[in-house]
Write a structure and sequence with these properties.
Number of strands: 4
Low-confidence stretches: 4-12
Number of helices: 27
Shape: globular
Radius of gyration: 31 Å
Largest sheet: 2 strands, antiparallel
Length: 617
């Protein structure tokens, strides 16, 4: 027994010794592999940095100012982690180019508005160009607050100089462009989760009571109610004795508590301006804050009327003041002190003797917007049908059919096509039919209804680029349940894309859309599909490699509409980022195949970003 025990112990010792020796070997191998991977990553990052520096030299010679500004700003953004000084220099060069680009775009926009007005008799709906300075400012402010402030000051000086020759009266209920830019940066930071930095940029704006500032404050409240409510309380305190505050000030302040996302202002001619989000849910503020609003609102609304013969110089006028009290009175009746309510009623009665007929006839439904549940869809449709029976001219009937069609298309109701077909004006009918078919197709894709989307792709009056997008998105939806059907639909999308004219910039966009769908359905074909898109881009005029979008529009004398949907699947950034992670060198060679400065820059920056940006957990 002793001999056996000794033998067992001896064997255990051998095994333990072997395990002890094996562990350092594995650890060493793992450490060596990790070191090699780190070295390889470092080499790729240096390659990516060199790629961007080389591109920046080319970008400074680009003839297109928009492309130059965007390229330099994005290079600076991508380089900042490894070379902030170089990034700062490029941001300043980008701003100089952006100033020229925005000036040129504004001139073209004004000319386009003039042309559309001449065709429609006054109304217009224009797809506005991008604000390049805003793009540069957003990127720069993310990295360097001082640099962001520097750009904002330059913009302020430029706008001040331009204002000396302007004749248009500024709207006190809207922000100036400079403050709008500042708030845009703050909103971008807020969406990125940088609440403190967002408020640093926004605080100068939040001293003003405008539609934009109140909307932003509501967005802050969703992140941190305490910080937002404190700033709102400060606005109430500063407004009480502010002689410039008027009924519109009260209306905007009320939106923070009672109708977040909906803002209504009035002018002296009994007309209003409103801006609204999809859902209006009252904010659960403390009773003290709500009482503070009532006190401030009453102090402003109960101010004496102008002396006889003296004009009312407030932005709302007497009509607006009357309508604001009428709109907000139910809130006072629910929670404010009875004496305050009686005072407001008495003041409204006094105003009733002075207001215009337009204010007396103001639509109660519009005045109560956001304050009570919306009428059922059937009731709203019936109201339009009742108006249709009373219409006396074809123009009136066409206008109602347009409203009915839009109302139906927004809920995916195929009757939108039937309503559009009843429009008598041939040209308008053609435009509206195409608009409604595209709207329905987009609705079915967004609601993930592949069968209905496919039906619209086959039956609807869709442009080739829209049809290609609908087919690619439908194929991606089908890939989850029917891979063969998805492949069939994607092949149909590729065929449709190739029907687009060779010189049309929509051809490479459509082919990039097909390549992005292949990532889901058949990844092995993505490289070849992207190569086809590169070849197509070299024959297409105006292809930039970004700003992929679908634009739906129609124009008529009775109204006009433009609906724009961003389509990242048409852009080069996403596909080249993914290819770079698969094979960096091959992706760089593919990007070099672009002959155009724009797409080559977009693809190159995307490749570098894929390597330089830290991986998200």
């Amino acid at each position: 027994m002793k001999t056996i025990i000794v033998a067992v112990c001896f064997l255990i010792g051998i095994v333990a010794q072997a395990q002890t020796q094996e562990k350092p070997v594995k650890t060493a191998a793992k450490s060596e592999a990790s070191a090699e991977a780190e070295l390889a990553l470092k080499e790729r990052r240096e390659k990516a940095r060199s790629l961007l520096v080389a591109l920046s030299s080319d970008a400074r010679t680009f003839h297109d100012e928009t492309l130059r500004a965007r390229s330099l700003a994005r290079i600076a953004d991508a380089l900042w982690q490894v070379d902030p000084e170089q990034g700062r220099l490029m941001f300043r060069k980008a701003w100089e180019a952006a100033e020229v680009a925005d000036s040129d775009s504004d001139k073209k926009l004004q000319e386009e508005i003039k042309q559309v007005k001449s065709r429609t008799g006054g109304g217009y709906a224009i797809n506005t160009p991008p604000n390049i300075r805003r793009e540069v400012l957003r990127l720069a402010a993310r990295h360097d607050r001082a640099l962001g402030e520097e750009f904002l000051e330059k913009l302020r000086v430029q706008k001040l100089e331009a204002a000396t020759s302007a004749t248009e009266k500024p709207n006190p209920n809207r922000l100036s462009e400079v403050m709008g830019q500042r708030l845009s940066v703050a909103r971008d930071l807020l969406l990125n989760g940088e609440l403190e930095r967002a408020l640093q940029f926004a605080d100068p704006v939040l001293a003003q009571i405008t539609i934009e500032s109140m909307n932003f404050l509501g967005q802050v409240r969703e992140k941190n109610a305490t910080l937002a409510d404190a700033r709102y309380a400060a606005l109430l305190a500063s407004s009480t004795n502010n002689q410039q505050a008027d009924a519109n000030t009260v209306s905007l302040l009320s939106s923070y508590i009672f109708t977040p996302g909906l803002f209504m202002t009035f002018n002296g001619t009994s007309t209003s301006t409103s801006q609204s989000t999809d859902k209006i849910i009252p904010a659960p503020v403390a009773p003290e804050l709500k009482n503070g609003f009532f006190q401030t609102a009453a102090a402003i609304l109960l101010r004496p009327l102008p002396a006889p013969g003296q004009p009312d110089t407030t932005s709302a006028g007497i009509d607006g003041k009357y309508l604001v009290i009428k709109r907000l009175l139910p809130f006072f009746e629910q929670s404010a002190p009875p004496a305050m309510v009686e005072s407001l009623r008495g003041h409204m009665s006094a105003l009733n003797t002075l207001i215009s007929d337009g204010a007396r006839r103001y639509d109660q439904e519009s005045l109560n917007e956001g304050m009570r549940a919306e009428k059922p869809a059937a009731d709203r449709e019936q109201a339009l049908l009742d108006r249709l029976d009373r219409a006396k001219t074809s123009a009136e009937r066409d206008s109602i059919y347009i409203q009915l069609a839009r109302f139906a298309s927004n809920t995916g109701d195929m009757r939108a096509r039937e309503f559009a077909s009843k429009i008598e004006d041939t040209e308008v009918r053609k435009q509206v039919q195409a608009y409604m078919d595209a709207t329905l197709a987009l609705y079915f894709v967004e609601k993930k209804k592949p069968d209905q989307a496919l039906e619209m792709a086959h039956k609807g009056e869709l442009t080739q680029i829209i049809k290609t997008w609908v087919l690619t998105q439908t194929a991606k939806l089908l890939a989850k349940t029917d891979k063969d059907k998805a492949q069939e639909v994607l092949d149909e999308a590729a065929t449709e894309a190739r029907r687009i004219e060779v010189s049309d910039a929509n051809l490479p966009r459509a082919l990039i859309g097909v390549a992005n769908a292949l990532k889901v359905i058949d990844p092995g074909r993505v490289w070849d599909a992207t190569f086809d898109a590169v070849k197509a881009a070299n024959s297409a005029e105006g292809f930039t490699g970004e700003d992929g979008e679908i634009v739906l529009t129609f124009q008529s004398k009775g109204g006009s509409s433009v609906h724009t949907k961003d389509v990242p699947d048409f852009d080069l950034e996403g596909i080249f980022k993914e290819l770079a992670l698969q094979d960096y060198d091959r992706a760089v060679e593919l990007a070099r195949g672009f002959q155009g400065e724009g797409p080559r820059a977009v693809a190159t920056i995307a490749i570098a970003r894929a390597i330089l940006e830290p991986k998200k957990k």
